[in-house]
Amino acid sequence: MGNPLEGRRPTIEYPCTWTYRVIGRDELLVRAALVELVGVAEHTLTLSAQSSSGKYRTLQLDVTVRDEAHRLELFARIAQHPDVRFVV
């Protein structure tokens, strides 16, 4: 018997706070990029982890998104930024 929720998307009520985890090499450059990308949207940005070698930093971005289009556009813009290695 399969999972009854399989294939169903969760209902997200907007506006809401959405969390992105962003990985990059230079914390200051990634911070500056994220602040520029979110613009005037309410947000918080915190360092959440670093690799054991110290080569990569993970920042947690909590940002208020207006709607699904805004959430997806922000994800795409973050992922395409040259100072960002990975975003989830």
Q: What is the average of the pLDDT values?
A: 93
- Strand arrangement, largest sheet? 2-3-1-4
Overall form: globular
Order of helices and strands: EHEEHE
Oligomer: single chain
Task: Provide tags for this entry.
alpha+beta; single chain; four-stranded antiparallel beta sheet; 28% helix; 2 helices; 88 residues; Alpha-Beta Plaits; 4 strands
What does this structure look like?
The protein has 88 residues and is α+β, with helices and mostly antiparallel strands. The protein has a domain of 61 residues: Alpha-Beta Plaits (2-Layer Sandwich), CATH 3.30.70. The chain has two helices and four strands, in the order βαββαβ. Strands 2-3-1-4 form a four-stranded antiparallel beta sheet. The chain is globular and about 40 Å long.
What is this entry, summarized?
With 88 residues, the protein is α+β, with helices and mostly antiparallel strands. It is built from 2 helices and 4 strands, in the order βαββαβ.
Topology, element by element:
Blueprint lengths: L15 E9 L2 H12 L4 E8 L6 E9 L2 H13 L5 E2 L1
Antiparallel strand pairs: 1-3, 1-4, 2-3
